[in-house]
Amino acid sequence: MDKSAVEALLAKVASGATTVAAAAEQLAVMPYSDLGFARLDVHRSLRQGFAEVIFCPGKSPEQVVAIARELSAHHHLVIATRAEKALADLVLEAIPEAEYVEKARALVFGKLPAPGADLPTLSIITAGTSDIPVAEEAALMVVAAGYPVSRLYDVGVAGVQRLTDNIETLRQADVTIVIAGMDGALASVVGGLLDKPIIAVPTSIGYGASFEGLAALLSMLSSCAPGITVVNIDNGFGAAMAALRLLRALSR
């Protein structure tokens, strides 16, 4: 149950359209819903502003379907992340009204909202084309929360003019997510150019000594540009959640 659903329920109680007892019955499912194999945090949206997502790796299609149906009973929009196409196809057979967003490797149960007017904005930058799946995972989560997202892809430091040509556009964003593999240097460059919150995401893209993203992670953590927030390797979802906390604070 999200905030809007609770507000609507309380409005019904206030107007006499439903009883206190009936409202209490609906609220009794909190703080979680027990499916036996999973305990779903249906209260998370009220606490944190965004519903629990389904992390697909390690789950069977049947488990994803059961979780999606239960969460959808409490939320108007549910997202399943890291869904490979083979699993997504099986889930869609059971829930054909869902949508598979292949670029983000995610299943969407419900309708994505249109971006809200006069809200803070997010910009997502990638060093290379190979970083786009992580970027699209982050973008989907922020779009699902109703915030505007702009994208600037393949502007790594090996051709830094691609970035500097777009500086004025980047300065318009309220929060920026920078996604890079290899040496992760793009985060430091952007951090030295912008004065607003920056969230850096190292990716596992790179040759031998990149150590599947460890080199980029350590580079971002050691950045000489002060004030950059760094999340874990390939963690577009985590970057989006950090960005949403900032965007919501700016919205108040």
Number of strand elements: 11
* Shape descriptor: globular
Helix content percent band: 25-40%
**SSE string, helices as H and strands as E:** HHEEHEHEHEEEHEHHEHEHEH
Question: Taking Cα atoms only, what radius of gyration do you get, to the nearest Å?
Answer: 20 Å
Mean pLDDT: 91
Largest β-sheet summary = 5 strands, parallel
- Please give the order of strands in the largest beta sheet: 8-7-9-10-11
* Uncertain residue ranges: none
Structural class: alpha/beta
- CATH class label of the largest domain: Alpha Beta
Per DSSP, the total helix count is 11
Descriptive overview:
By secondary structure, the chain is an alpha/beta fold. It folds into 2 domains: 107 residues, no CATH class; 130 residues, Rossmann fold (3-Layer(aba) Sandwich), CATH 3.40.50.1970. Helix content is 39%, strand content 15%. It contains 11 helices and 11 strands. The strands form 3 sheets. A 5-stranded parallel sheet has the order 8-7-9-10-11. Strands 3-4-6-5 form a 4-stranded mixed sheet, sandwiched between helices. Strand 7, helix 6 and strand 8 form a beta-alpha-beta unit. Helix 4 crosses helix 5 and helix 6 runs parallel beside helix 11. The model has no long low-confidence stretch (mean pLDDT 91).
Give me the secondary-structure topology.
Blueprint: H1 3-15, H2 20-27, E1 33-34, E2 39-40, H3 44-48, E3 54-55, H4 61-72, E4 78-81, H5 85-94, E5 99-101, E6 106-109, E7 122-126, H6 132-144, E8 149-152, H7 161-164, H8 167-170, E9 175-180, H9 186-191, E10 198-202, H10 214-221, E11 229-230, H11 236-251
Parallel strand pairs: 3-4, 7-8, 7-9, 9-10, 10-11
Antiparallel strand pairs: 1-2, 4-6, 5-6
